[in-house]
Structure formats: C-alpha cells, structure tokens
Request: fold
Amino acid sequence: MTSALIADGLTKRYGRRTALSDCTLDIPAGHVVGLVGPNGAGKSTLLQLACGLLDPTTGRIEALGERPVSGSPRVGFVAQDTPVYAGLTVAEHLRMGAHLNPSWDAGLADRRIAQVGLDPAQKAGKLSGGQRAQLALTVAAAKRPDLLLLDEPVAALDPLARRNFLQGLMELTVEQGMSIIMSSHLVADLERVCDHLVLLVGSRVRVAGDVDDLLAGHHRLVGPRREPAEVGSGRHVVEQSHTDVQSTLIVRSTAPIDDPAWQVDRLGLEDIVLAYMSGPGGQR
Reply:
C-alpha cells in the first residue's frame, strides 16, 4: 500500500450546494498532511468522506486502499469540536475506548494520559480546551489506526496548548508510523509538523504536494512592469499585482528563473497558501 487516501472525481452535494467538487487526490501513506483552505472550502466534508461518515454524490474515494466505512479500526477520526463526554472521567473514556476497539492499546493510552498530565479521575467537562483535545487525541490514537484524521484539532487552543498538542502528535507519528491528515487554518503550525499539503479553495483542490517541493517551486518576482504571459514557459502565475512601473508576481516554476530584471524571493508556506486563496485560481 502506497496511498493513505485516493480521490477520483469526488463530489459531494447537499441539495443545491456543492461542498466538494471534482476532487482528485493521491495522498501518499506515511506522511503528516496539512489540509488547508478558507471556511466552506470542503475540508470537513473531505475528512468525513474519508472516514465513512458521508457517502459521495459522485466519484470515488479510498482510504488505505478500501472504501471508507464508519467505525473502521484502521481509521481514527477526531471531529472539529474534539468530542469528549462531559460527564465521563478520563479513565472512563479509556475504558470505553477499550470496550469499543479490539485493537486498543491500553499501555499507549495510559502513557499518554500521564505524559500530558491528565488526572484519570477528572471529568471531561472540567478539563481545559487543550486537555480535552489531548484526551480526544489519546482515544483516537490508542485504537492504533493506520490513518488518523483530525478536523481543526487546535482551532480553539491557546499557543502553548497548540504547541503541546502538536508535539504529542509528532511523538505519536514517530512511535506508531501512522499516516495523519489534519485540517487547520493555522498554516504556521502546519509548517512545523506537516510534510505534505493539500489546499482546497471553492470546494476544489488548488494545489497538493510535498511541502519541500512546494517551497522550492514557488517564488515572488519583483521587477519592471510586465504582463503575466511574459514570464516565460514553465512558470504559472498564481497571484499578481502591478503599479505603473512595477510588477509583483507569485509564480510556480519548473524552470530556472535567470532573468536579471527580476528580484527573486523565497516564500514561506503561508505565503503560498494565501497566494492561491487570493489569486484567480491555481493548478495542482
């Protein structure tokens, strides 16, 4: 198996509204994948399709080479509100997880609870947002899935809680070797932990690929005013702005940029994401 998730022409509609349109992806296994995009772009829909909570309207999706089925022991899912049961204690969550999951790893669960400082006797309703997120992650990870799906797991956390959560996520990745797909608006956080990126805009895939390749292939060009068609072959203009005398272009390039008239600057991952979100369109 070489793919964690495959989508081919995947479309999901709710009545007249299209949540995901003609999505084609091949996400390799063994990666930590950042799923980004504006609100309403289809991120949650894609994750729910991937874990079998939704069925496609048209097209095909496979998770770990299989049609997604809700409750699969091979796929773990933590929804956007990091669901835990307010009236249950931490220990009761672990006992419930052990009862529902034949592959439950009690040692892993106990170690994580101790590492993140959760009191087994504490009710989930009394935990902080960061603690609830850690509990939800522990329950999802202790079933030992091959693919872990996380929908905005750090959205409501403060910076320290986010850092602790992401550190715990990386430790789990190293320990278990699972594939992870995590949606988030916080691109700076994703850049620290993700090695693959998928960007959805307007219910469509705009760009997808290894983070290192995306960083190496995108540039900001600043120089005398030119039209986008004049940048040369092998260069796709993602975003552009102009004054009377100067052009600033964000380009994706497969060819060297050796024109001395251009000042060429490297971009961070957030710069690339924002360019695709604000530009007229992109390419995958």
Remarks:
- Residues 213-278 form one domain.
- The first helix runs from residue 43 to 50.
- The chain has two domains: 3-202, 213-278.
